[in-house]
Amino acid sequence: MIENEDIILYYHNLSFKVNEYEGSYNIPILCPNISRGCKSNNIKKDGHDTSVKSSPQKFTYNDCGITFYAHTSAFYRDI
Fold this sequence. Notes:
Elements: E1 2-3, E2 8-9, E3 11-18, E4 21-28, E5 43-48, E6 57-61, E7 67-69
Antiparallel strand pairs: 1-2, 3-4, 5-6, 6-7
């Protein structure tokens, strides 16, 4: 998490191992509504979804009201 007076940014840490190569990458959590013009940085962690096997962290954007998981963030759409 990176924080200043106005913005809190959360990151999803992606760790990988391919053959002898290991590493990790911090992927920014972005609003899935970014394609609809949402540019909100007003995000909050909103607990875990215990109805799903891995209990993923839920996030809510306060400006547009959408709730989502880190792996459904806008970043992953372009991969």
